[in-house]
From TrEMBL:
The gene is tdk. PANTHER family: THYMIDINE KINASE, THYMIDINE KINASE, CYTOSOLIC. It holds the Pfam family TK. Belongs to the thymidine kinase family. This is Thymidine kinase. The keyword Metal-binding applies.
Length: 199
Protein backbone atom coordinates (compact mmCIF):
# COMPACT_ATOMS: atom_id res chain seq x y z
CA UNK A 1 0.00 0.00 0.00
CA UNK A 2 1.37 3.43 -0.99
CA UNK A 3 2.29 5.82 1.82
CA UNK A 4 3.50 9.38 2.34
CA UNK A 5 6.83 9.34 4.15
CA UNK A 6 8.69 12.20 5.83
CA UNK A 7 12.41 11.70 6.49
CA UNK A 8 13.49 14.69 8.57
CA UNK A 9 16.62 15.94 10.24
CA UNK A 10 18.85 18.94 10.70
CA UNK A 11 21.50 20.08 8.22
CA UNK A 12 24.27 17.76 7.02
CA UNK A 13 22.65 14.53 8.19
CA UNK A 14 22.88 12.84 4.78
CA UNK A 15 19.24 13.17 3.66
CA UNK A 16 20.14 13.66 -0.01
CA UNK A 17 22.53 10.70 0.10
CA UNK A 18 19.79 8.45 1.50
CA UNK A 19 17.30 9.73 -1.10
CA UNK A 20 19.69 9.08 -3.99
CA UNK A 21 20.56 5.61 -2.69
CA UNK A 22 16.88 4.69 -2.27
CA UNK A 23 16.11 5.84 -5.82
CA UNK A 24 19.13 3.91 -7.13
CA UNK A 25 17.80 0.75 -5.48
CA UNK A 26 14.56 1.03 -7.50
CA UNK A 27 16.41 1.79 -10.74
CA UNK A 28 18.78 -1.15 -10.21
CA UNK A 29 15.73 -3.41 -10.17
CA UNK A 30 14.40 -2.00 -13.44
CA UNK A 31 11.87 0.41 -11.94
CA UNK A 32 11.53 4.13 -12.66
CA UNK A 33 11.43 6.91 -10.09
CA UNK A 34 10.70 10.63 -10.15
CA UNK A 35 13.12 12.90 -8.29
CA UNK A 36 11.93 16.39 -7.39
CA UNK A 37 13.73 19.24 -5.60
CA UNK A 38 13.08 22.87 -4.71
CA UNK A 39 13.83 25.30 -7.54
CA UNK A 40 15.19 27.92 -5.14
CA UNK A 41 18.00 25.64 -3.90
CA UNK A 42 20.31 25.48 -6.90
CA UNK A 43 23.60 24.90 -5.07
CA UNK A 44 24.08 21.65 -7.03
CA UNK A 45 22.84 23.25 -10.25
CA UNK A 46 19.31 23.85 -11.51
CA UNK A 47 17.14 20.74 -11.30
CA UNK A 48 19.76 18.61 -9.60
CA UNK A 49 19.99 16.75 -6.28
CA UNK A 50 23.53 16.26 -5.02
CA UNK A 51 25.10 14.90 -1.86
CA UNK A 52 28.13 16.26 -0.02
CA UNK A 53 29.86 12.92 -0.66
CA UNK A 54 29.80 13.54 -4.40
CA UNK A 55 26.83 11.65 -5.84
CA UNK A 56 23.99 13.36 -7.67
CA UNK A 57 21.11 13.01 -10.12
CA UNK A 58 18.91 15.16 -12.34
CA UNK A 59 15.53 16.10 -10.90
CA UNK A 60 12.35 17.95 -11.72
CA UNK A 61 11.94 21.11 -9.67
CA UNK A 62 9.09 22.77 -7.81
CA UNK A 63 8.29 26.26 -6.61
CA UNK A 64 5.29 27.62 -4.73
CA UNK A 65 3.19 27.61 -7.93
CA UNK A 66 3.81 23.93 -8.78
CA UNK A 67 0.87 21.54 -8.56
CA UNK A 68 2.56 18.45 -7.14
CA UNK A 69 -0.42 16.20 -7.85
CA UNK A 70 -0.46 17.18 -11.54
CA UNK A 71 3.32 16.75 -11.82
CA UNK A 72 3.07 13.21 -10.46
CA UNK A 73 -0.01 12.39 -12.54
CA UNK A 74 1.78 13.51 -15.72
CA UNK A 75 4.75 11.29 -14.87
CA UNK A 76 2.46 8.30 -14.28
CA UNK A 77 0.49 9.02 -17.46
CA UNK A 78 3.78 8.83 -19.39
CA UNK A 79 4.65 5.39 -18.02
CA UNK A 80 5.16 3.35 -14.85
CA UNK A 81 6.82 5.06 -11.90
CA UNK A 82 7.50 3.08 -8.73
CA UNK A 83 8.22 5.91 -6.29
CA UNK A 84 8.36 9.71 -5.99
CA UNK A 85 11.28 11.28 -4.09
CA UNK A 86 11.05 14.91 -2.92
CA UNK A 87 14.19 16.63 -1.62
CA UNK A 88 14.17 19.93 0.31
CA UNK A 89 10.60 19.15 1.36
CA UNK A 90 10.61 21.90 3.98
CA UNK A 91 10.07 24.34 1.08
CA UNK A 92 6.73 22.77 0.11
CA UNK A 93 3.60 24.74 0.90
CA UNK A 94 0.86 23.20 3.04
CA UNK A 95 -1.29 22.91 -0.10
CA UNK A 96 1.49 21.04 -1.91
CA UNK A 97 1.78 18.56 0.94
CA UNK A 98 -1.95 17.90 0.58
CA UNK A 99 -1.37 17.41 -3.16
CA UNK A 100 1.30 14.79 -2.37
CA UNK A 101 -1.11 13.07 0.04
CA UNK A 102 -3.73 13.01 -2.74
CA UNK A 103 -1.21 11.45 -5.11
CA UNK A 104 -0.55 8.70 -2.57
CA UNK A 105 -4.25 8.09 -1.93
CA UNK A 106 -5.64 8.46 -5.45
CA UNK A 107 -2.73 7.49 -7.71
CA UNK A 108 -1.43 4.75 -5.41
CA UNK A 109 2.23 5.76 -5.64
CA UNK A 110 4.55 6.07 -2.62
CA UNK A 111 5.99 9.53 -1.98
CA UNK A 112 9.15 9.91 0.08
CA UNK A 113 9.90 13.43 1.31
CA UNK A 114 13.24 14.48 2.77
CA UNK A 115 13.75 17.79 4.53
CA UNK A 116 14.55 19.88 7.55
CA UNK A 117 12.15 19.92 10.46
CA UNK A 118 13.03 23.33 11.97
CA UNK A 119 14.78 26.52 10.88
CA UNK A 120 17.71 28.32 12.58
CA UNK A 121 15.31 29.91 15.09
CA UNK A 122 13.86 26.55 16.13
CA UNK A 123 10.58 27.10 14.26
CA UNK A 124 8.89 24.60 11.97
CA UNK A 125 8.99 25.21 8.24
CA UNK A 126 5.44 25.27 6.75
CA UNK A 127 6.14 22.22 4.57
CA UNK A 128 7.60 20.30 7.50
CA UNK A 129 4.67 21.20 9.76
CA UNK A 130 2.23 19.89 7.14
CA UNK A 131 4.26 16.72 6.64
CA UNK A 132 4.41 16.09 10.40
CA UNK A 133 0.61 16.33 10.39
CA UNK A 134 -0.11 14.30 7.24
CA UNK A 135 2.67 11.76 6.70
CA UNK A 136 1.80 8.09 7.15
CA UNK A 137 5.31 7.38 8.40
CA UNK A 138 8.05 9.62 9.76
CA UNK A 139 11.70 8.73 10.12
CA UNK A 140 14.42 10.79 11.74
CA UNK A 141 17.76 10.93 9.94
CA UNK A 142 20.30 11.45 12.69
CA UNK A 143 23.47 13.46 12.85
CA UNK A 144 25.58 14.61 15.79
CA UNK A 145 26.55 17.81 17.55
CA UNK A 146 30.22 18.58 18.23
CA UNK A 147 29.64 17.26 21.78
CA UNK A 148 28.60 13.82 20.48
CA UNK A 149 24.89 14.13 21.32
CA UNK A 150 22.20 13.88 18.67
CA UNK A 151 21.86 17.17 16.76
CA UNK A 152 18.26 18.33 16.46
CA UNK A 153 18.76 22.07 15.83
CA UNK A 154 20.71 24.27 13.44
CA UNK A 155 22.30 27.71 13.79
CA UNK A 156 22.90 30.17 10.96
CA UNK A 157 26.33 31.72 11.23
CA UNK A 158 27.04 35.37 10.41
CA UNK A 159 30.20 36.70 8.72
CA UNK A 160 31.75 37.20 12.18
CA UNK A 161 31.32 33.50 13.03
CA UNK A 162 28.56 34.20 15.56
CA UNK A 163 25.08 32.65 15.47
CA UNK A 164 22.40 34.90 13.99
CA UNK A 165 19.20 35.30 15.96
CA UNK A 166 17.15 37.13 13.32
CA UNK A 167 16.63 36.97 9.58
CA UNK A 168 14.49 35.45 6.86
CA UNK A 169 13.43 31.86 7.45
CA UNK A 170 14.86 30.80 4.09
CA UNK A 171 18.49 31.46 3.22
CA UNK A 172 20.19 28.87 1.04
CA UNK A 173 23.55 27.70 2.31
CA UNK A 174 25.66 24.77 3.35
CA UNK A 175 28.47 24.12 5.81
CA UNK A 176 29.70 27.70 5.41
CA UNK A 177 26.37 29.02 6.75
CA UNK A 178 24.80 26.40 9.00
CA UNK A 179 25.98 24.27 11.92
CA UNK A 180 23.97 21.40 13.42
CA UNK A 181 23.83 21.29 17.22
CA UNK A 182 22.08 19.53 20.08
CA UNK A 183 19.39 21.65 21.76
CA UNK A 184 21.64 22.63 24.68
CA UNK A 185 24.45 23.91 22.46
CA UNK A 186 21.94 25.60 20.14
CA UNK A 187 20.58 27.48 23.15
CA UNK A 188 24.09 28.50 24.16
CA UNK A 189 24.91 29.62 20.61
CA UNK A 190 21.72 31.67 20.49
CA UNK A 191 22.80 33.55 23.62
CA UNK A 192 20.73 31.91 26.34
CA UNK A 193 22.45 31.99 29.71
CA UNK A 194 22.06 28.36 30.74
CA UNK A 195 23.13 29.01 34.34
CA UNK A 196 20.64 31.85 34.80
CA UNK A 197 17.69 30.02 33.33
CA UNK A 198 18.51 26.77 35.11
CA UNK A 199 17.99 24.86 31.83
Amino acid sequence: MAKLYFHYSTMNAGKSTILLQASHNYIERGMQTLLVTARLDDRAGAGRIASRIGIGAEAASFDVETDMFEMIKSKLDAGPCACIFVDEAQFLTEEQVWQLARAVDDLHVPVMCYGLRVDFQGKLFPGSAALLALADEMREVRTICHCGKKATMVVRMGPDGQALRDGDQVQIGGNETYVSLCRRHWRAAMGEDLAETGR
